[in-house]
Design a protein that fits this description.
The protein is 55% helix and 7% strand. It has 14 helices and five strands. It has two domains: 104 residues, Tyrosine recombinase, N-terminal domain (DNA polymerase, domain 1, Orthogonal Bundle), CATH 1.10.150; 189 residues, Orthogonal Bundle (hpI Integrase, Chain A).
Length: 336
């Protein structure tokens, strides 16, 4: 083999190695890690490879302006960079851990959670979407028809399956199979908790109202989709993009929908509102935690509990019952 052939072979091997290393890290993680490294080097003026002392100073300099979770994400990015380049990981040094603990003590923050979308609120939202869809049909506005049909399917599938925004954006027509009168199966090649990339199959039932299966079928038929992403961008002329909705854009889309439908404080909702809404609804309807974890796909019980809002948040129902006082009708948090 000539020197040129050897060089080409090495270059090909390197390219393949880079491709597989890149595939091992999810796209969103890659982007956030790149942003973190740029912030450390460019914005703060740090040097790589870094020392434990410089990372400790970096944390201290941003303790007042960055959330603790953001600082942890920055540490994870720096750790990944050092590991990938074959350098010792300075983020594991005692001084870094001690500074992080001090920041946690001096800057405690209350965790912000998206407001869960309750069933009565979703009913209000779907009624508004269907009324808007009827108007679009009567006026022959194809772009509006497509937009409302897509949004109805996105909300109902997202709620009843407890999907995250990134999971909704990665749904493909080829991976969804409908069994008339029963339900549909949805295959996702990878999910957040699927570290081995084995994929997961989910099922959604046919319902007599607020049906995710019927909404999905209506959307696919109206859009004429035979394959590719399920939920796509639609321009004002009613043309569908080939690419899926960006996961981050789904948050803004949902807030616009909630505002248009008259839901209070739409800015407090996010794509997690669908997931939390379903978890809260299931808990209020006596689903045990194991069944809920299996249905949604949680591996850790702490993750499941974080998403559930109690229907009796102040304990009034339980305390009145213990005191022998006839309890009032138990309502959901959104009804109080």
């Amino acid at each position: 083999m000539s020197d040129d052939e050897i060089s080409r072979e090495k270059a090909l091997t390197t390219n393949n190695l880079d491709r597989y290393l890149q595939a091992a890290t999810r796209d969103n993680t890659q982007r956030s890690y790149q942003t973190a490294i740029e912030h450390f080097e460019v914005s703060w003026g740090g040097f790589l490879p870094a020392t434990a002392d410089s990372i400790a100073r970096y944390l201290a300099d941003h303790a007042d302006t960055l959330a603790l979770n953001t600082l942890k994400q920055r540490l994870a990015a720096l750790a990944q960079w050092h590991n990938d380049q074959g350098f010792p990981d300075p983020t594991k040094a005692p001084i870094v851990k001690k500074v992080l603990k001090g920041i946690r003590e001096l800057h405690p923050v209350q965790e912000k959670r998206a407001r869960p979308l309750q069933l009565d609120q979703m009913t209000q939202l779907i009624r508004w979407i269907e009324a808007s869809l009827a108007i679009a049909e009567s006026t022959g506005d194809k772009g509006a028809q497509l937009t409302h049909a897509r949004n109805r399917a996105l909300v109902l599938v997202g709620f009843w399956r407890g999907f995250r925004s990134d999971e909704l954006s990665r749904l493909n027509v080829e991976n969804i199979h409908v069994i008339p009168g029963e339900g549909m199966t949805i295959y996702l090649p990878r999910t957040k908790g699927d570290r081995l990339n084995r994929g997961a199959t989910y099922k959604a039932p046919v319902l007599r109202r607020l049906c995710p299966v019927g909404a999905y079928q209506d959307w696919i038929a109206l859009a004429g989709l035979k394959g590719g992403p399920v939920f796509r961008r639609i321009n004002r002329w009613g043309q569908l993009a080939d690419a899926p909705l960006n996961p981050n854009s789904i948050i803004a889309l949902l807030r616009r929908l909630f505002a248009a439908a008259g839901l209070a404080e739409p800015e407090r909702y996010s794509s997690h509102s669908l997931r939390r809404g379903f978890a809260t609804w299931a808990n209020a309807n006596q689903w045990d935690v194991k069944a809920l974890m299996e249905y949604v796909g949680w591996k850790d019980i702490k993750s499941a509990i974080r998403y559930i809002d109690s229907a009796d948040p102040y304990g009034q129902y339980r305390i009145d019952s213990a005191l022998g006082i006839p309890p009032k009708t138990l309502t959901s948090p959104s009804q109080e």
